[in-house]
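fyi for ur records
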Amino acid sequence: MAQTAKSSMTGALHTKPDLDDQRGQWLSAYRRVRGETEHRASFLSPEDQIVQSMADASPTKWHRAHVTWFFETFLVREFDASYKIFDERFPFLFNSYYVAAGPRYARPQRGLITRPNSEEVTRYRAHVDAAVEKLIANVTAQDAPRVFEILEIGLNHEQQHQELLLTDILHAFAQNPTNPAYNPDWRMPGAASALRAVDDFVDVPSGIQPIGHDNSGFCFDNELPRHDALIPKMRIARHLVTNAQWLEFIEAGGYRTPSLWLSDGWATVQGEGWEAPGYWRQEDGTWQIMTLGGLKPVDAAAPVLHVSYYEADAFARFAGKHLPSEQEWETSARSGALADAFGGAWQWTRSAYLSYPGYRAIDGALGEYNGKFMSGQMVLRGSSLATPEGHERLSYRNFFPPAARWQFSGLRLAEFP
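which gave:
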């Protein structure tokens, strides 16, 4: 996570020679990102904020505290000798998986931490915010490059948790028989009013193509180093697979046809009893879906969401197509061929989450962020409706286990000529 390029969050910060300008821009960026976390949490009651509906999800209160612990641990305590830690219990409670940073509370039991309560977490955030703002205001020219680098990492890290805050609370609400809405006024952004053309495929630039981050703006270390990849002659769908197409898959017996599925996928379908995407249910003979706005009718024109890699792969086989590799996806998106690459659904690729040639994680706790998860995961590209504004980019590599579907995950198809 700690290999970074120039910042894209607040403009060309690292190219400005005036330290006061940089201080002001970083302060603005910090307040904006921290404010967005609180805005997303503001729709939730204190009771909502402590619920943990499965081991892979975390309570909202924990997300708010964990990102604050990140700034306290890796930024303030490192650069402000006068800083007084807010609560000696918090590093154990709110560390996630940074082994080098010390012991941590078991992830599946985060929902049992009813105390400290949400009010105390709010005070914790205010305490650390004051310390970070003081550090930004007083940082020396000698410390500024490293302080701003860690600050930038922390802000991007918090934006990731802003997305997880929504995916995790939606999973929790989907378990509630009263079908509560996170925000009753929420609407699917850019929902289509008409069905997209299902056969709209475009050529992907073939041959040797550059893959990875181009050093213009921030990136996580798993997007580096930039390297060349050989892209075959192929075509990719301009649009995401829709609910209408998925309904055809269901009605054709897709979830009952073992020949469409990978072995592990078929075992998961049988073990979990899957008959439709996550959060879909039949009410009075019609399909409904649990959304951030509550239970809604499935919109046939909207992109399908909450499908696993196993489901995406099976659907592609059903359609006589395949999923693009992450290199094919990135090349297509860079060429401008994809109509809805960002903001709708994370898109499964057929690529395992592995290191790029020459990848090296840095030393220390911050180096634990990406590299140690390069096993048993598949890559998703693009961004979703829950991704904070400005957090998406062409080289971004999201990754989840192949059975995961509580994220806003969908797919687009590809084909060979």
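Residues 1-14, 191-195 have pLDDT under 50 and may be disordered. thats all i got for now
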